[in-house]
Amino acid sequence: MQERVPLPTSPPRQRRRWSYNRFQQRAAPYLFTSPFFILFLIFGLFPLGFSLFLAFHLWNPLDGLGNWEYVGWDNFKLALGAPDQFWVSLKITVWIGLLSGVPQHLVALPLAFVINQALRRWQSGISTILFLPYITNAVAITIVFGMLFSENLGLLNYGLSLVGLGPVRWLALPELVPVSVATVVFWRYVGWNVILYLSGLQAISEDVYEAATVDGANNVQKFFYITLPLLRPMMFYAFTLTIVGNMQLFEEPFILLGQAGGSGGAALTSAMHIFNVAFRDLDMGYGSAMAWLLFLAIFILSMINNYLFSRGGGRS
Amino acid sequence: MTTQPLETTVSPPRPPRRSPRFTLSRAGLWIFVGLACFLSLVPFYLMFVWASLPSSQIFTVPPHLWFGDALTSNFQKMMAATDNHALRQFWNSLYIAILSTVTTLFFCSLAGFAFAMYEFKGKRYLFGFILITMLIPPLVMDIPSFLVMNNFLHWIGTPRTLWVPGMANAFGIFLMRQYIFSALPKSLIEAARLDGATEFGIYTRVVLPLIRPILATLGIVTFVGSWNNFKGALIMRLSEDSTMTLPLSLRKITGGATNINADWGATLMMVVLTVLPLLIIFLLASRQVISGLTSGAVKD
């Protein structure tokens, strides 16, 4: 150990002389990490506190700072009271989330399994293709989907007409609108989940599968008795991302159906509703209160997810 | 450094691959995976085809599914539809994305380096705090960040609103720390220190060159994230024709995805303009991005 070698010391002094070298060594980690904390203070912590403060006030930002009126829990009561638009939007959000989220994982998991088991050699090419939707621009791709869904001239209805089915009003029927939005979301995120599951699968040792092969297990058995249990941590992670992402869904319904969420607001998600209240109506207090409620909803759903996974999630 | 014996017999012979005989189940797998890839690519194919068709041929029955020759006229229509601001808007998006990427890479790698290679008082708490901030859903920040920009800083309508707040973010710091921690030996840092390098000198001359792979990953992720940031630009009112970013402009010239009267040739041209940079960047480095993104996913 080189640094333990006693160095010839100068005659002892009362105080060590201040040395730039020592100072910069001590201070470096603090200096290097400080940008985050400074930025977070200005653009994170202070705004968070301010938004919590606003949730109990009535305020239009055009009135200037200080001109707010304390209203207590009224904003929260308004959002949670009799079937308010916030409740409706929350239901819509969860419904679209389920419609897109559940099939995402039902498709991604077997897809990753198949690629990992049988098509290893093509894996990097296939995952690149499947990952493409994830990195595309939501606005651009939603416009393309909007054209596919078009009632009279869209490709989707053209395809249906070839097999003798009438035009479907994908973007007009209140029951179908969530399905259309969910389709776009599904398309964008399936590949991302495949990639997550693939990397999870690669962490599973090949030996386990070989042992199972020796014992005569077929692919289906391997999937249910080896892959699924060992993939649980990754599934938990992927589910969490899906929940957190889907609950904040904004761009796809906003572009596909417009700011109001289509006729009757059939695709008005909570994020869009909050956006409208805060930035169109400039009711910042009510918007803030709803944003916190949505945060709470995301938190609760994540906890439920966590609970299901920590309890054995269906398999012992 | 200990010298290692030549590794000649280390790797065991690969188990013989079963010859990929054609079986029914194998064909089924290919159909399943092939269909998934096909569906992933179709919208991309269509946007390129449509961008090359004159507006009158984009929506027809039966549909045109092969390239046309209207690329240049669609480009001109796009310029006209945006009052000649389309390229300016492309530049706005690019400028914000580049600034955002460069600053994020710098600040996140610097902080990641500190958390991976230094011992200092409060390190665990500071790092824990950074991780906790990752739990805040971006949505909760929308309103308060607008208010900070609007009522305190008066930055509304400027590109700063989009790249300054994210310069040092929790995800980036975490990713960098994980990589530096596992890829760089501490002895390297100490050696540089003995040679008389300053701490910042160690960062620029030792650390930065060695973490290029993860810089590429975070760089691309940041670039793509910034390029695609529609809601942020909407909230921060980059709404003048000359200050708009591309996604915002795209929404404006479409006037809603269901607007049948929109100029689809122009719109599709801009769709391509918005998506093409992403495709190019990603195809150049897809492997790096995919492996880098998932490497830190669950290993803990």
TrEMBL record, chain A:
InterPro entries: ABC_transporter_permease, MetI-like, MetI-like_sf. It is found in: Cell membrane. The keyword Ligase does not apply. Keywords: Cell membrane, Membrane, Sugar transport, Transmembrane, Transmembrane helix, Transport. One of its GO terms (cellular component) is plasma membrane. GO terms for biological process: transmembrane transport. Residues 90-305 form the ABC transmembrane type-1 domain. The chain crosses the membrane at residues 36-59, 92-114, 126-149, 224-244, 256-277, 289-309. Belongs to the binding-protein-dependent transport system permease family. This is Multiple sugar transport system permease protein. It comes from Deinococcus humi. The lineage of its organism: Bacteria, Thermotogati, Deinococcota, Deinococci, Deinococcales.
From TrEMBL, chain B:
Signal peptide: none annotated. The chain crosses the membrane at residues 27-53, 94-118, 125-149, 161-181, 202-227, 264-285. Belongs to the binding-protein-dependent transport system permease family. Residues 90-285 form the ABC transmembrane type-1 domain. It holds the Pfam family BPD_transp_1. It is found in: Cell membrane. The keyword Transport applies. This is Multiple sugar transport system permease protein. CDD domains: TM_PBP2 (cd06261). GO terms for biological process: transmembrane transport. GO terms for cellular component: plasma membrane. InterPro entries: MetI-like, MetI-like_sf. Keywords: Cell membrane, Membrane, Sugar transport, Transmembrane, Transmembrane helix, Transport. The keyword Metal-binding does not apply. It is a multi-pass membrane protein. Its main location: membrane.
